[in-house]
Amino acid sequence: MGLRRTVRGAAVVLGILPIVAGSSVTDSHGVVAPFKDVKLAADADVKCLKAAVEAGDPDKGPSTLLLTAAPGCVVKPHLHTAAEQLIVVRGEVMTGMDGMKEAVLGAGGFAAMPGKVVHWFTCQAKAPCTMFVMFDAKYDIVWVKRS
Fold first, then answer.
1. What is the number of structural domains in the chain?
2. Range of 101's domain?
3. Whole-model pTM above 0.70?
4. Which of 42-56 are b and which e, b meaning 16 or more Cβ less than 10 Å from the residue's Cβ?
5. 130, 108 Cβ separation under 8 angstroms
6. Are 80 and 115 in contact (CB under 8 A)?
7. Are 12 and 65 a contacting pair, CB within 8 Å?
8. How far, in Å, CA of 61 to CA of 137, rounded?
9. pLDDT per residue rounded down to tens, the chain (147 residues)
């Protein structure tokens, strides 16, 4: 998932100096981002996925991203150095990670993936799936080939 490239071109948890829609936000200010104002950008690696950085700077530290996935969108097995949390807002997202049984998460569904643990997901809804993804450290991605 070429999210690193997507995030740089998009508008965008817990960063000390997060950046939202191009504005600097200090730890003494909050973030307010109405969905209608979010600028989603196509992902460079996963063509059925769009992303926007809501808070933080994924190139430097913790961040929160809003993702939308087209129906049937598959994000193949991968891992991140950072721990990741996923919260489904809309749709049905089948998610799995090594060592756990796959599960379909609806609105309000939650998954936490420790750093360096292989995981994947698929939007199984008939309409786009919307989810928030939070990373606790700088973003990176390693694709994992399975035989």
1. 1
2. 3-143
3. yes
4. ebebbebbbbbbbbb
5. no
6. yes
7. yes
8. 4
9. 444 433 333 322 222 233 333 333 445 568 888 989 999 999 988 999 999 999 999 999 999 999 999 999 999 999 999 999 999 999 999 999 999 999 999 999 999 999 999 999 999 999 999 999 999 999 999 999 987
